[in-house]
Amino acid sequence: MKSPSLVAAACLAAILFASISQADVVSDVAGLRSEWDQINFTMKKEEQAKPLENLIARAHAVSQANPGNAPALIWEGIIHATYAGAKGGLGALGECKTAKALFEQAIAVDPNALAGAAWTSAGSLYYQVPGWPVGFGDDEKAEQMLKKGLELGPQDLDAHYFYADFLIKQERWQEAVNILQRGLATPQDPQRPLFQQARRERMANMLNTAKGKL
To answer: What is the pTM of this model?
Structure first.
């Protein structure tokens, strides 16, 4: 029979290992996010394909090393979706389908992860991908998911950005103005200066466009 002290030591070791593992995946996901920011906001679209291919491989390795980790799945999906835009052509739809599957996995694991980012990201695919019979695009489903993302991430810049972009494409100008104003009023994230600057500049332009349509 094991002594209580040995059992306690084993439990403590397991807790410490879990804490270290969790810290590692958080660091890995932050690294993916930082590299994505660099590629997406400092490089021209035609230059992004190869760096994104390399980043997909890294993201997949992080997901494989941390099975069932929602943030890792979300960021692997985001990178695939971005690669679809950079790649274009017939292969882009396959990348979008891969991204959608990853977002669905993340939602199944933890629907609240990263302030609802899986909902927002999946919703953005649903309104940008062609509908049946070519793709899976669906504006009604897109809006449901974008609203869920905004509900879970009321301070999330992308939740506002993508829902506003959807509303503009629907020519729902006043609703877009309201969402953009709320989004631009959210706090800055000092850890992501490239993302913050690029998204806010784009949202300010979108706001001017939407106001001009009223």
So the answer is: 0.88
